[in-house]
Amino acid sequence: MFTFDLAAELAGTGVTVNCLHPSTFMPTNMALGHTEPQGTVQDGVPATMRLVTSPDTGNVTGRYFDVQQEAAALSQAYDADARQRLREVSEQLTALVSSH
Questions:
Q1: Which of 31, 42, 71, 81 is the Cys-Cys partner for 66 at CB 3.0 to 4.6 Å?
Q2: Distance separating alpha carbons of residues 18 and 4, to the nearest angstrom
């Protein structure tokens, strides 16, 4: 959810912001509790590097990827009100002050 907001905030700066599905390549306890990883962290390096270095994704921002394909995030991630609530709660829990 933060990816979509950050991409909008940085629009026009030349900085791109994208999200790679968090449990695609992370066989951690948190990921294993929710889904079966599709590979190892080492397998995930090409997907991560593609987002960072590929000319194909150089101007792509505010997108969600699963492995090396653009995908749809959960519908709540596209809800501006839900993102605002998450931002406010996160700021409260981390004692940060919003710049918005």
A1: 71
A2: 8
Q: What is the mean pLDDT of residues 85-90?
A: 92
* Residue 24: partners with Cβ closer than 8 Å, 6 or more residues away: 37, 38, 39, 44, 47, 66, 67
User: Does an H or E element contain 66, and which?
Assistant: strand 63-66
User: pTM here?
Assistant: 0.73
Using one digit for the tens of pLDDT, what is the confidence trace for 55-86?
Answer: 998 899 999 998 888 999 999 999 999 999 99
What is the dihedral sign for C-alpha 57, 60, 61, 62? negative
Sheet holding 18-20: strands in order across? 18-20, 63-66, 69-71
Q: What is d(CA 39, CA 42) in angstroms, rounded to the nearest whole number?
A: 8
Cα–Cα distance, 36 to 1 (Å, whole number): 22
Question: Rounded to an integer, what distance in angstroms lies between the CA atom of residue 14 and that of residue 12?
Answer: 6
